[in-house]
Amino acid sequence: MQAAELRKKFLDFFESKGHKIVQSSSLIPDDPSVLLTTAGMQQFKKYYTGEANAKRDFGSLSTASIQKCFRTSDIDEVGDERHLTFFEMLGNFSFGGYFKEEAISYGYEFLAETLDLSIDYITVFDPEKVPEGDWRKGVPFDEESYDIWKKILPEEKIRREGTDNFWGPTGAEGPCGPTTEIYINGTEIWNIVFNQFYCDRDGNLASLKIQGVDTGMGFERLAMVAQNKENIFETDLFEPLLGILIESISEKQKRIIVDHARSVAFLISDGVLPSNKEAGYILRRLMRRLISYGTGKEKNLFELVVANYKSFYPELNLERILSVFNDENEKFARTLNKGLSELIKLGEIDAKTAFRLYESYGLPFEVIKEYDGGKKTRNLSREDFEEEFKKHQAISRAGAENKFGGHGLLLDTGELKAKDEEELKKVTRLHTATHLLQAALRKVLGQDVKQMGSDITVERTRFDFSFPRKLTPEEIKEVEDLVNKAIADGLEVKMEEMDIEEAKKSGALYFFKEKYPSKVKIYSAGNFSKELCGGPHVANTREVGKFAILKEEASSSGVRRIRGVVTP
Protein backbone atom coordinates (compact mmCIF):
# COMPACT_ATOMS: atom_id res chain seq x y z
CA MET A 1 0.00 0.00 0.00
CA GLN A 2 1.58 3.27 -1.15
CA ALA A 3 2.00 6.24 1.19
CA ALA A 4 -0.60 8.39 -0.59
CA GLU A 5 -3.20 5.64 -0.22
CA LEU A 6 -2.35 5.20 3.47
CA ARG A 7 -2.91 8.90 4.18
CA LYS A 8 -6.28 8.79 2.40
CA LYS A 9 -7.40 5.66 4.24
CA PHE A 10 -6.57 7.21 7.60
CA LEU A 11 -8.44 10.46 6.94
CA ASP A 12 -11.41 8.69 5.31
CA PHE A 13 -11.67 6.32 8.27
CA PHE A 14 -11.89 9.06 10.88
CA GLU A 15 -14.13 11.24 8.76
CA SER A 16 -16.54 8.30 8.63
CA LYS A 17 -16.43 8.28 12.46
CA GLY A 18 -17.58 11.90 12.68
CA HIS A 19 -14.18 13.60 12.95
CA LYS A 20 -13.52 16.97 11.35
CA ILE A 21 -10.40 16.68 9.18
CA VAL A 22 -8.03 19.56 10.00
CA GLN A 23 -5.08 20.56 7.81
CA SER A 24 -1.55 20.33 9.15
CA SER A 25 -0.39 23.48 10.85
CA SER A 26 2.96 25.04 10.00
CA LEU A 27 6.29 23.73 11.29
CA ILE A 28 6.63 27.23 12.78
CA PRO A 29 4.41 26.93 15.88
CA ASP A 30 2.24 29.54 17.57
CA ASP A 31 3.29 28.00 20.89
CA PRO A 32 6.30 30.02 22.17
CA SER A 33 7.37 27.15 24.46
CA VAL A 34 8.62 25.08 21.50
CA LEU A 35 11.03 25.90 18.68
CA LEU A 36 9.24 23.88 15.99
CA THR A 37 6.05 21.83 15.80
CA THR A 38 6.84 18.48 17.41
CA ALA A 39 3.47 16.75 17.67
CA GLY A 40 0.02 16.63 16.13
CA MET A 41 -1.68 17.84 19.27
CA GLN A 42 0.17 21.17 19.39
CA GLN A 43 -2.33 23.03 17.21
CA PHE A 44 -5.15 21.69 19.44
CA LYS A 45 -3.71 22.53 22.89
CA LYS A 46 -6.13 25.38 23.49
CA TYR A 47 -9.10 23.03 23.01
CA TYR A 48 -7.88 20.81 25.86
CA THR A 49 -7.39 23.77 28.20
CA GLY A 50 -10.78 25.31 27.45
CA GLU A 51 -9.32 28.47 25.88
CA ALA A 52 -11.07 27.58 22.60
CA ASN A 53 -14.31 25.81 21.71
CA ALA A 54 -13.96 22.85 19.32
CA LYS A 55 -17.68 22.62 18.65
CA ARG A 56 -17.75 26.24 17.54
CA ASP A 57 -14.55 26.11 15.49
CA PHE A 58 -14.84 22.63 13.94
CA GLY A 59 -18.52 21.78 14.30
CA SER A 60 -17.38 18.68 16.22
CA LEU A 61 -15.71 17.67 19.47
CA SER A 62 -13.54 15.27 17.44
CA THR A 63 -10.81 16.05 14.91
CA ALA A 64 -8.19 14.14 12.92
CA SER A 65 -5.07 15.38 11.17
CA ILE A 66 -1.81 14.48 9.49
CA GLN A 67 0.68 16.89 10.99
CA LYS A 68 4.13 17.91 9.77
CA CYS A 69 6.54 17.51 12.70
CA PHE A 70 10.19 18.20 13.44
CA ARG A 71 12.26 17.01 16.40
CA THR A 72 15.67 18.55 16.94
CA SER A 73 16.56 15.99 19.62
CA ASP A 74 16.99 13.31 16.96
CA ILE A 75 19.45 15.14 14.67
CA ASP A 76 22.48 13.28 16.00
CA GLU A 77 20.66 9.94 15.82
CA VAL A 78 19.75 10.22 12.13
CA GLY A 79 21.53 7.61 10.07
CA ASP A 80 20.26 4.50 11.83
CA GLU A 81 17.17 2.58 10.72
CA ARG A 82 14.51 4.62 12.51
CA HIS A 83 15.44 8.16 13.56
CA LEU A 84 14.30 11.22 11.56
CA THR A 85 14.21 14.97 11.97
CA PHE A 86 11.13 15.66 9.80
CA PHE A 87 8.23 13.21 10.02
CA GLU A 88 4.46 13.06 9.70
CA MET A 89 2.19 12.32 12.66
CA LEU A 90 -1.28 10.85 12.18
CA GLY A 91 -3.65 11.62 15.02
CA ASN A 92 -7.25 11.63 16.16
CA PHE A 93 -8.38 13.88 18.98
CA SER A 94 -11.39 14.26 21.27
CA PHE A 95 -12.07 17.37 23.34
CA GLY A 96 -14.62 16.19 25.89
CA GLY A 97 -16.39 13.91 23.41
CA TYR A 98 -15.58 10.19 23.22
CA PHE A 99 -13.09 8.58 25.57
CA LYS A 100 -11.35 5.22 26.12
CA GLU A 101 -13.91 2.80 24.68
CA GLU A 102 -14.17 4.54 21.32
CA ALA A 103 -10.49 5.54 21.06
CA ILE A 104 -9.30 1.97 21.60
CA SER A 105 -11.88 0.47 19.25
CA TYR A 106 -10.96 3.03 16.54
CA GLY A 107 -7.28 2.14 16.86
CA TYR A 108 -7.94 -1.57 16.59
CA GLU A 109 -10.47 -1.25 13.76
CA PHE A 110 -8.21 0.93 11.60
CA LEU A 111 -5.11 -1.22 11.97
CA ALA A 112 -6.56 -4.73 12.14
CA GLU A 113 -9.61 -4.39 9.91
CA THR A 114 -9.08 -1.45 7.54
CA LEU A 115 -5.36 -2.18 6.95
CA ASP A 116 -5.49 -5.90 7.80
CA LEU A 117 -2.41 -5.70 10.03
CA SER A 118 -1.66 -8.16 12.81
CA ILE A 119 -1.17 -6.58 16.26
CA ASP A 120 1.66 -8.19 18.27
CA TYR A 121 0.64 -6.77 21.63
CA ILE A 122 -0.55 -3.61 23.38
CA THR A 123 0.50 -1.96 26.65
CA VAL A 124 -1.50 -0.28 29.44
CA PHE A 125 -0.40 1.65 32.53
CA ASP A 126 0.26 -0.21 35.77
CA PRO A 127 1.78 1.64 38.78
CA GLU A 128 3.27 -1.65 39.99
CA LYS A 129 5.76 -1.31 37.12
CA VAL A 130 6.76 2.23 38.18
CA PRO A 131 10.05 2.59 40.14
CA GLU A 132 9.88 3.53 43.82
CA GLY A 133 10.03 7.28 44.37
CA ASP A 134 8.48 8.16 41.01
CA TRP A 135 5.46 10.46 41.33
CA ARG A 136 3.42 8.17 39.07
CA LYS A 137 3.64 5.38 41.64
CA GLY A 138 0.43 6.67 43.25
CA VAL A 139 -1.59 6.76 40.01
CA PRO A 140 -4.27 4.04 39.83
CA PHE A 141 -3.96 1.08 37.46
CA ASP A 142 -5.70 1.78 34.13
CA GLU A 143 -8.18 -1.01 34.65
CA GLU A 144 -10.70 0.52 32.26
CA SER A 145 -8.33 0.31 29.25
CA TYR A 146 -7.26 -3.17 30.29
CA ASP A 147 -10.87 -4.39 30.38
CA ILE A 148 -11.67 -2.78 27.01
CA TRP A 149 -8.69 -4.50 25.37
CA LYS A 150 -9.69 -7.86 26.93
CA LYS A 151 -12.86 -7.73 24.83
CA ILE A 152 -10.74 -7.33 21.67
CA LEU A 153 -7.46 -9.24 22.12
CA PRO A 154 -6.32 -12.39 23.94
CA GLU A 155 -5.13 -11.48 27.44
CA GLU A 156 -1.59 -12.66 26.68
CA LYS A 157 -1.30 -9.79 24.17
CA ILE A 158 -2.03 -7.18 26.85
CA ARG A 159 1.09 -6.05 28.72
CA ARG A 160 1.29 -3.89 31.81
CA GLU A 161 3.98 -1.21 31.70
CA GLY A 162 5.11 1.68 33.90
CA THR A 163 6.34 5.21 33.26
CA ASP A 164 6.33 4.87 29.46
CA ASN A 165 2.57 4.42 29.65
CA PHE A 166 1.76 7.58 31.55
CA TRP A 167 1.95 10.91 29.79
CA GLY A 168 2.23 14.19 31.62
CA PRO A 169 4.46 16.76 33.28
CA THR A 170 7.27 15.17 35.29
CA GLY A 171 6.04 16.08 38.73
CA ALA A 172 4.91 19.48 37.46
CA GLU A 173 1.46 21.02 37.26
CA GLY A 174 -0.76 20.17 34.28
CA PRO A 175 -3.09 17.69 32.55
CA CYS A 176 -1.89 14.10 32.44
CA GLY A 177 -3.10 10.56 32.03
CA PRO A 178 -2.45 6.95 31.15
CA THR A 179 -1.64 5.80 27.63
CA THR A 180 -2.13 2.62 25.70
CA GLU A 181 0.36 1.74 22.95
CA ILE A 182 -0.09 -0.60 19.99
CA TYR A 183 2.85 -2.68 18.68
CA ILE A 184 3.19 -4.33 15.26
CA ASN A 185 6.29 -6.33 14.22
CA GLY A 186 7.92 -5.27 17.47
CA THR A 187 7.49 -1.57 16.63
CA GLU A 188 5.41 0.93 18.59
CA ILE A 189 2.92 2.16 15.99
CA TRP A 190 0.25 4.10 17.85
CA ASN A 191 0.27 5.90 21.20
CA ILE A 192 -3.20 6.70 22.54
CA VAL A 193 -3.13 9.20 25.41
CA PHE A 194 -6.07 9.72 27.79
CA ASN A 195 -5.96 13.17 29.40
CA GLN A 196 -7.80 12.03 32.51
CA PHE A 197 -6.25 13.83 35.49
CA TYR A 198 -4.90 17.18 36.57
CA CYS A 199 -1.68 17.09 38.59
CA ASP A 200 -1.13 20.01 40.99
CA ARG A 201 2.24 21.33 42.12
CA ASP A 202 2.31 18.93 45.07
CA GLY A 203 1.75 15.90 42.84
CA ASN A 204 -1.90 15.43 43.81
CA LEU A 205 -4.26 14.12 41.11
CA ALA A 206 -7.82 15.21 40.43
CA SER A 207 -10.14 14.15 37.60
CA LEU A 208 -10.30 16.62 34.73
CA LYS A 209 -13.68 18.22 34.10
CA ILE A 210 -13.12 17.86 30.35
CA GLN A 211 -11.40 14.56 29.59
CA GLY A 212 -9.69 14.22 26.24
CA VAL A 213 -8.09 11.82 23.79
CA ASP A 214 -4.80 12.66 22.06
CA THR A 215 -3.27 10.05 19.76
CA GLY A 216 -0.13 9.93 17.68
CA MET A 217 0.94 7.44 15.03
CA GLY A 218 4.22 7.94 13.17
CA PHE A 219 3.41 7.80 9.47
CA GLU A 220 6.81 6.48 8.42
CA ARG A 221 6.51 3.57 10.88
CA LEU A 222 2.98 2.82 9.68
CA ALA A 223 4.21 2.79 6.07
CA MET A 224 6.99 0.40 7.09
CA VAL A 225 4.62 -2.21 8.56
CA ALA A 226 1.92 -1.68 5.93
CA GLN A 227 4.47 -2.18 3.13
CA ASN A 228 6.11 -5.08 5.00
CA LYS A 229 9.56 -3.46 5.01
CA GLU A 230 12.47 -4.03 7.35
CA ASN A 231 12.95 -0.33 8.12
CA ILE A 232 11.47 3.07 7.26
CA PHE A 233 14.09 3.79 4.58
CA GLU A 234 12.85 0.89 2.46
CA THR A 235 9.37 2.45 2.11
CA ASP A 236 8.23 4.49 -0.89
CA LEU A 237 8.72 7.62 1.25
CA PHE A 238 12.51 7.23 1.01
CA GLU A 239 13.41 4.64 -1.61
CA PRO A 240 13.12 7.03 -4.61
CA LEU A 241 15.36 9.56 -2.84
CA LEU A 242 17.97 6.97 -1.92
CA GLY A 243 17.90 5.68 -5.48
CA ILE A 244 19.47 8.80 -6.95
CA LEU A 245 22.51 8.74 -4.64
CA ILE A 246 25.73 7.09 -5.79
CA GLU A 247 26.71 3.68 -4.41
CA SER A 248 30.02 4.83 -2.94
CA ILE A 249 28.25 6.81 -0.20
CA SER A 250 27.83 4.85 3.04
CA GLU A 251 24.34 3.72 4.07
CA LYS A 252 24.43 6.00 7.11
CA GLN A 253 25.33 9.04 5.02
CA LYS A 254 22.63 8.23 2.48
CA ARG A 255 20.01 8.19 5.22
CA ILE A 256 21.28 11.46 6.65
CA ILE A 257 21.20 13.09 3.20
CA VAL A 258 17.62 12.07 2.34
CA ASP A 259 16.36 12.93 5.83
CA HIS A 260 17.96 16.37 5.72
CA ALA A 261 16.73 17.02 2.17
CA ARG A 262 13.12 16.41 3.24
CA SER A 263 13.55 18.57 6.34
CA VAL A 264 15.20 21.45 4.48
CA ALA A 265 12.44 21.44 1.83
CA PHE A 266 9.65 21.61 4.40
CA LEU A 267 11.33 24.13 6.71
CA ILE A 268 12.05 26.59 3.89
CA SER A 269 8.54 26.19 2.45
CA ASP A 270 7.08 27.01 5.87
CA GLY A 271 9.07 30.23 6.07
CA VAL A 272 12.25 29.33 7.97
CA LEU A 273 15.42 30.98 6.69
CA PRO A 274 18.98 30.03 7.66
CA SER A 275 20.41 32.04 10.55
CA ASN A 276 22.48 31.58 13.68
CA LYS A 277 19.61 31.25 16.11
CA GLU A 278 16.45 29.28 16.85
CA ALA A 279 14.76 27.52 13.91
CA GLY A 280 17.07 29.25 11.44
CA TYR A 281 20.05 27.72 13.21
CA ILE A 282 18.53 24.24 12.88
CA LEU A 283 17.93 24.80 9.16
CA ARG A 284 21.49 26.05 8.66
CA ARG A 285 22.90 22.98 10.44
CA LEU A 286 20.98 20.66 8.13
CA MET A 287 21.85 22.60 4.98
CA ARG A 288 25.55 22.80 5.77
CA ARG A 289 25.70 19.11 6.56
CA LEU A 290 24.12 18.42 3.17
CA ILE A 291 26.56 20.74 1.45
CA SER A 292 29.54 19.23 3.28
CA TYR A 293 28.72 15.74 1.98
CA GLY A 294 29.09 17.20 -1.52
CA THR A 295 26.84 14.79 -3.42
CA GLY A 296 25.89 17.38 -6.06
CA LYS A 297 22.40 15.82 -6.04
CA GLU A 298 20.66 18.36 -3.83
CA LYS A 299 18.60 19.87 -6.66
CA ASN A 300 17.43 16.40 -7.75
CA LEU A 301 16.54 15.51 -4.17
CA PHE A 302 14.50 18.66 -3.66
CA GLU A 303 12.70 18.14 -6.97
CA LEU A 304 11.79 14.61 -5.93
CA VAL A 305 10.62 15.66 -2.44
CA VAL A 306 8.32 18.28 -3.96
CA ALA A 307 7.05 15.86 -6.61
CA ASN A 308 6.30 13.18 -4.01
CA TYR A 309 4.65 15.41 -1.39
CA LYS A 310 3.13 18.42 -3.16
CA SER A 311 -0.26 16.79 -3.81
CA PHE A 312 -0.78 16.55 -0.04
CA TYR A 313 1.32 19.57 1.03
CA PRO A 314 0.71 22.18 -1.72
CA GLU A 315 2.73 24.76 0.22
CA LEU A 316 5.97 23.10 -0.92
CA ASN A 317 7.69 25.63 -3.17
CA LEU A 318 10.57 24.30 -5.27
CA GLU A 319 11.63 27.71 -6.55
CA ARG A 320 11.95 29.08 -3.01
CA ILE A 321 13.68 25.95 -1.71
CA LEU A 322 16.33 26.11 -4.44
CA SER A 323 16.79 29.85 -4.07
CA VAL A 324 17.40 29.71 -0.31
CA PHE A 325 19.55 26.58 -0.53
CA ASN A 326 21.70 27.90 -3.39
CA ASP A 327 22.27 31.16 -1.56
CA GLU A 328 23.45 29.31 1.57
CA ASN A 329 25.51 26.96 -0.56
CA GLU A 330 27.29 29.88 -2.21
CA LYS A 331 28.07 31.50 1.15
CA PHE A 332 29.22 28.31 2.80
CA ALA A 333 31.34 27.06 -0.10
CA ARG A 334 33.66 30.03 0.34
CA THR A 335 34.74 28.88 3.80
CA LEU A 336 34.19 25.11 3.64
CA ASN A 337 37.50 24.29 1.96
CA LYS A 338 39.40 26.60 4.32
CA GLY A 339 37.76 24.89 7.30
CA LEU A 340 38.57 21.41 6.06
CA SER A 341 42.18 22.46 5.40
CA GLU A 342 42.44 23.72 8.96
CA LEU A 343 40.83 20.53 10.27
CA ILE A 344 43.47 18.39 8.53
CA LYS A 345 46.28 20.22 10.35
CA LEU A 346 44.85 19.64 13.82
CA GLY A 347 45.50 16.77 16.22
CA GLU A 348 42.84 15.59 18.65
CA ILE A 349 39.81 17.86 18.57
CA ASP A 350 37.97 18.88 21.76
CA ALA A 351 34.79 20.94 22.17
CA LYS A 352 36.59 24.30 22.22
CA THR A 353 38.50 23.51 19.03
CA ALA A 354 35.34 22.19 17.36
CA PHE A 355 33.42 25.34 18.24
CA ARG A 356 36.27 27.51 16.92
CA LEU A 357 36.07 25.62 13.60
CA TYR A 358 32.31 26.17 13.58
CA GLU A 359 32.55 29.85 14.45
CA SER A 360 35.44 30.64 12.08
CA TYR A 361 34.53 28.45 9.09
CA GLY A 362 30.94 27.37 9.66
CA LEU A 363 31.90 23.68 9.80
CA PRO A 364 28.91 21.79 11.24
CA PHE A 365 29.47 19.69 14.34
CA GLU A 366 28.47 16.58 12.39
CA VAL A 367 31.14 17.14 9.73
CA ILE A 368 33.82 17.70 12.37
CA LYS A 369 32.72 14.67 14.39
CA GLU A 370 32.60 12.34 11.40
CA TYR A 371 35.88 13.49 9.84
CA ASP A 372 38.41 10.66 9.29
CA GLY A 373 36.03 8.14 10.82
CA GLY A 374 36.00 9.95 14.15
CA LYS A 375 39.65 9.21 15.05
CA LYS A 376 40.45 12.83 15.94
CA THR A 377 37.10 13.37 17.65
CA ARG A 378 36.64 10.23 19.75
CA ASN A 379 36.31 12.35 22.92
CA LEU A 380 34.14 15.06 21.33
CA SER A 381 30.45 15.04 22.33
CA ARG A 382 27.48 17.07 21.14
CA GLU A 383 26.77 18.07 24.77
CA ASP A 384 30.24 19.61 25.24
CA PHE A 385 30.00 21.38 21.87
CA GLU A 386 26.58 22.84 22.79
CA GLU A 387 28.00 23.99 26.11
CA GLU A 388 30.66 25.97 24.25
CA PHE A 389 27.92 27.39 22.03
CA LYS A 390 25.95 28.52 25.11
CA LYS A 391 29.03 30.19 26.58
CA HIS A 392 29.48 32.09 23.32
CA GLN A 393 25.82 33.19 23.37
CA ALA A 394 26.13 34.39 26.97
CA ILE A 395 29.17 36.50 26.07
CA SER A 396 27.33 37.93 23.05
CA ARG A 397 24.27 38.74 25.16
CA ALA A 398 26.37 40.48 27.77
CA GLY A 399 27.98 42.57 25.04
CA ALA A 400 24.59 43.53 23.62
CA GLU A 401 23.31 44.51 27.06
CA ASN A 402 26.31 46.75 27.63
CA LYS A 403 25.90 48.29 24.18
CA PHE A 404 22.20 49.01 24.63
CA GLY A 405 22.18 50.32 28.17
CA GLY A 406 21.47 47.02 29.90
CA HIS A 407 18.20 46.38 28.09
CA GLY A 408 19.45 43.50 25.90
CA LEU A 409 17.20 44.29 22.95
CA LEU A 410 17.55 47.34 20.79
CA LEU A 411 13.83 47.04 19.97
CA ASP A 412 11.03 45.22 21.81
CA THR A 413 7.47 46.35 21.13
CA GLY A 414 5.88 42.94 21.73
CA GLU A 415 5.09 42.63 18.04
CA LEU A 416 8.67 43.33 16.90
CA LYS A 417 12.00 42.42 18.46
CA ALA A 418 15.55 43.21 17.36
CA LYS A 419 18.80 42.79 19.26
CA ASP A 420 21.06 44.93 17.06
CA GLU A 421 21.13 47.44 14.22
CA GLU A 422 21.19 44.74 11.54
CA GLU A 423 18.09 43.02 12.92
CA LEU A 424 16.38 46.39 13.35
CA LYS A 425 16.77 47.07 9.61
CA LYS A 426 15.18 43.72 8.75
CA VAL A 427 12.16 44.01 11.07
CA THR A 428 11.63 47.60 9.92
CA ARG A 429 11.37 46.45 6.29
CA LEU A 430 9.03 43.61 7.31
CA HIS A 431 6.92 45.96 9.43
CA THR A 432 6.29 48.33 6.54
CA ALA A 433 5.61 45.33 4.28
CA THR A 434 2.94 44.17 6.76
CA HIS A 435 1.15 47.53 6.42
CA LEU A 436 1.25 47.20 2.66
CA LEU A 437 -0.02 43.63 2.95
CA GLN A 438 -3.09 44.63 4.95
CA ALA A 439 -3.91 47.39 2.45
CA ALA A 440 -3.50 44.96 -0.47
CA LEU A 441 -5.74 42.36 1.20
CA ARG A 442 -8.50 44.92 1.61
CA LYS A 443 -8.18 46.00 -2.01
CA VAL A 444 -8.42 42.40 -3.27
CA LEU A 445 -10.83 40.84 -0.76
CA GLY A 446 -12.92 43.81 0.32
CA GLN A 447 -13.08 46.37 3.10
CA ASP A 448 -14.46 43.90 5.65
CA VAL A 449 -10.97 42.45 6.05
CA LYS A 450 -9.63 43.42 9.49
CA GLN A 451 -6.38 42.74 11.28
CA MET A 452 -6.71 40.00 13.92
CA GLY A 453 -3.10 39.88 15.05
CA SER A 454 0.49 40.02 13.82
CA ASP A 455 3.95 38.85 14.78
CA ILE A 456 7.18 39.93 13.13
CA THR A 457 10.56 38.27 13.56
CA VAL A 458 13.84 38.95 11.79
CA GLU A 459 12.97 36.18 9.35
CA ARG A 460 9.30 36.73 8.49
CA THR A 461 6.02 38.51 9.13
CA ARG A 462 2.90 36.68 10.25
CA PHE A 463 -0.40 38.48 9.73
CA ASP A 464 -3.86 37.26 10.83
CA PHE A 465 -6.98 38.75 9.26
CA SER A 466 -10.72 38.19 9.25
CA PHE A 467 -11.92 36.26 6.18
CA PRO A 468 -14.32 33.30 5.92
CA ARG A 469 -12.50 31.09 3.40
CA LYS A 470 -9.19 29.98 1.90
CA LEU A 471 -7.73 32.41 -0.64
CA THR A 472 -7.43 31.20 -4.22
CA PRO A 473 -3.98 31.05 -5.84
CA GLU A 474 -5.06 33.93 -8.08
CA GLU A 475 -6.02 36.07 -5.07
CA ILE A 476 -2.73 35.32 -3.32
CA LYS A 477 -0.78 36.32 -6.42
CA GLU A 478 -2.84 39.50 -6.83
CA VAL A 479 -2.16 40.50 -3.22
CA GLU A 480 1.56 39.76 -3.59
CA ASP A 481 1.73 41.70 -6.86
CA LEU A 482 -0.04 44.72 -5.33
CA VAL A 483 2.43 44.85 -2.44
CA ASN A 484 5.39 44.61 -4.81
CA LYS A 485 3.94 47.31 -7.06
CA ALA A 486 3.62 49.63 -4.04
CA ILE A 487 7.25 48.85 -3.21
CA ALA A 488 8.43 49.43 -6.79
CA ASP A 489 6.51 52.73 -6.96
CA GLY A 490 8.85 54.15 -4.33
CA LEU A 491 6.09 55.63 -2.14
CA GLU A 492 7.20 58.06 0.53
CA VAL A 493 6.30 56.89 4.04
CA LYS A 494 5.09 59.81 6.16
CA MET A 495 4.19 60.08 9.84
CA GLU A 496 1.84 62.53 11.50
CA GLU A 497 0.55 62.78 15.06
CA MET A 498 -3.02 63.54 16.12
CA ASP A 499 -5.64 62.78 18.79
CA ILE A 500 -6.94 59.21 18.76
CA GLU A 501 -10.53 60.09 17.88
CA GLU A 502 -9.41 62.42 15.10
CA ALA A 503 -7.13 59.65 13.79
CA LYS A 504 -9.99 57.14 13.64
CA LYS A 505 -12.19 59.61 11.77
CA SER A 506 -9.38 60.19 9.25
CA GLY A 507 -9.90 56.71 7.82
CA ALA A 508 -6.64 55.32 9.14
CA LEU A 509 -6.76 51.59 9.93
CA TYR A 510 -6.26 50.52 13.53
CA PHE A 511 -6.18 47.23 15.43
CA PHE A 512 -9.38 47.02 17.47
CA LYS A 513 -7.71 44.85 20.16
CA GLU A 514 -4.98 47.43 20.78
CA LYS A 515 -5.21 50.04 23.55
CA TYR A 516 -4.03 53.33 22.08
CA PRO A 517 -2.90 56.46 23.93
CA SER A 518 -4.79 59.73 23.54
CA LYS A 519 -2.14 60.96 21.09
CA VAL A 520 -1.21 58.57 18.28
CA LYS A 521 1.03 58.33 15.22
CA ILE A 522 -0.31 57.63 11.73
CA TYR A 523 1.97 56.17 9.06
CA SER A 524 1.01 56.54 5.39
CA ALA A 525 2.66 55.00 2.33
CA GLY A 526 1.54 57.38 -0.43
CA ASN A 527 -2.18 56.81 -0.98
CA PHE A 528 -1.74 53.03 -0.70
CA SER A 529 -1.90 52.47 3.07
CA LYS A 530 -2.68 54.47 6.20
CA GLU A 531 -2.51 53.03 9.74
CA LEU A 532 -2.20 53.94 13.39
CA CYS A 533 1.17 52.62 14.47
CA GLY A 534 4.15 53.14 16.75
CA GLY A 535 6.73 52.35 14.07
CA PRO A 536 9.47 51.76 13.02
CA HIS A 537 9.12 52.18 9.25
CA VAL A 538 11.26 52.73 6.18
CA ALA A 539 11.32 56.21 4.68
CA ASN A 540 10.49 54.97 1.18
CA THR A 541 8.78 51.71 0.17
CA ARG A 542 11.67 50.85 -2.20
CA GLU A 543 13.72 50.07 0.93
CA VAL A 544 11.43 47.11 1.68
CA GLY A 545 12.82 44.96 -1.14
CA LYS A 546 10.79 42.18 -2.74
CA PHE A 547 7.83 40.73 -0.82
CA ALA A 548 6.76 37.08 -1.09
CA ILE A 549 3.86 35.21 0.49
CA LEU A 550 5.13 31.89 1.82
CA LYS A 551 1.85 30.48 3.04
CA GLU A 552 -1.84 31.26 3.48
CA GLU A 553 -3.70 29.08 6.00
CA ALA A 554 -6.45 28.97 8.61
CA SER A 555 -5.59 30.43 12.01
CA SER A 556 -8.98 29.81 13.65
CA SER A 557 -12.62 29.92 12.66
CA GLY A 558 -13.16 32.93 10.35
CA VAL A 559 -9.52 33.99 10.62
CA ARG A 560 -6.84 33.39 7.97
CA ARG A 561 -3.09 33.71 8.37
CA ILE A 562 -0.39 34.82 5.93
CA ARG A 563 3.33 34.31 6.41
CA GLY A 564 5.55 36.49 4.26
CA VAL A 565 9.19 37.41 3.78
CA VAL A 566 11.16 40.21 2.16
CA THR A 567 14.39 39.87 0.24
CA PRO A 568 16.77 42.65 -0.88
Automatic annotation (TrEMBL):
CDD domains per UniProt: AlaRS_core
Signal peptide range: none
Alphabetical keyword list: Aminoacyl-tRNA synthetase, ATP-binding, Ligase, Nucleotide-binding, Protein biosynthesis, RNA-binding, tRNA-binding
Protein EC: 6.1.1.7
Pfam families: tRNA-synt_2c, tRNA_SAD
GO cellular component term, pick one: cytoplasm
Keyword Cytoplasm appears in the UniProt entry: no
Protein's UniProt name: alanine--tRNA ligase
